[in-house]
Design a protein that fits this description.
- InterPro entries: AAA+_ATPase, ABC_AA/LPS_Transport, ABC_transporter-like_ATP-bd, BCA_ABC_TP_C, P-loop_NTPase.
- By secondary structure, this protein is of the alpha/beta class.
- It contains ten helices and ten strands.
- It has helices at about 40-50, 70-75, 95-100, 110-115, 120-135, 155-165, 185-195, 205-215, 230-235, 240-245; strands spanning about 1-10, 15-25, 30-35, 55-60, 65, 80, 170-175, 200-205, 215-220, 225-230.
- The strands form two sheets. Strands 6-7-8-3-9-10 form a six-stranded mixed sheet, sandwiched between helices. It has a four-stranded antiparallel sheet with strand order 2-1-4-5, with helices on one face.
- Helix 3 (about 95-100) packs across helix 5 (about 120-135) and helix 3 packs parallel to helix 6.
- The chain binds adenosine-5'-triphosphate.
């Protein structure tokens, strides 16, 4: 599904990523871990299109996306969340999710708005159903009419996740998804992520969240991929323990 192939990134004399290669099969959740400065953010930026690699390729579903803009990646079904959740504070929770669906437009333009074509009404009903489905999945149904600005960060993070999921992304990138969450919210988020049938790549410092949530883990250190494997394999890897887990 996602293939990162021989990716290197230089910032001046610093090699932030050095020949990093791994694949995330469809439907799996992979975590990226590593000490500060390991290259996690840079890798994320390369996959989401904010940073162009000096060498190597990124492809999604067999399509080479290296050098393709973030907007065109979004059109190819890639979504990401941010360390600080990006939501519309002055919209309700349901409005936030609907807005994430609305960017495809209603079809038919002004004429359809005025006449209320049956096709348009069907589309609106389908959108309403999808909003309800995503809110349920993220445990937000009871908060659907709350304004996003009034919510604590943990719930705002779930709203951001709901927005990212709304139009069924093919690849979801989660940047530090547990930051600012309490223990209960972290458990809830882990359950939501595991229940998804979407391919997920996440960067996270909370080691127990990564170990509980991910199918496989990629370990970076000083720009190099020093290990990849299941949580158990990574936990027991002597190179990883020496570099990171201590
Ligand atoms: N824009 C930049 N200009 C110069 N150097 C950079 C830039 N961005 C990152 N670096 C360097 O690249 C290396 C990798 O940084 P990166 O932010 O990807 O690591 P990280 O694993 O995300 O770290 P952290 O856990 O602290 O967020 C570091 O040495 C960093 O100083």
């Amino acid at each position: 599904m996602l293939a990162v192939d021989g990716v290197s990134v230089w910032f001046g004399g610093v090699k932030a990523l050095d020949q990093v290669s791994f694949e995330v099969p469809a439907g799996q959740v992979h975590g990226v871990i590593g000490p500060n400065g390991a290259g996690k953010t840079t890798l994320f930026d390369v996959v989401s299109g904010l940073c162009r690699p000096g060498e190597g390729r990124v492809s999604v579903a067999g399509r080479d996306l290296t050098g393709v803009s973030p907007l065109r990646r979004a059109r190819a079904g890639l979504r990401r969340t941010f360390q600080r959740p990006q939501v519309f504070g002055r919209l309700t929770v349901a409005g936030n999710v609907l807005a994430a669906l609305d960017w495809h437009g209603g079809g038919g333009g002004l004429a359809a708005d005025l006449v209320g074509w049956p096709g348009r009404r069907r589309l609106e009903r389908e959108r309403g159903e999808r909003v309800a489905e995503v809110l349920e999945l993220c445990g937000l149904t009871a908060l659907r009419d709350a304004y996003a600005a009034a919510l604590p960060i943990g719930q705002r993070r779930l709203v951001e996740l709901a927005r990212a999921l709304a139009d069924r992304p093919s690849l979801l990138l989660l940047d530090e998804p547990t930051s600012g969450l309490d223990a209960d919210q972290t458990v809830r988020l882990g359950a939501v992520v595991k229940a998804l049938d979407t391919t997920v790549l996440l960067v996270e410092h909370d080691m127990s969240f990564v170990m509980d949530t991910c199918d496989r883990i990629v370990v970076l250190d000083l720009g190099k991929m020093i290990a990849t494997g299941t949580p158990d394999a990574v936990r027991q890897d002597p190179v990883v323990r020496a570099a990171y887990l201590g």
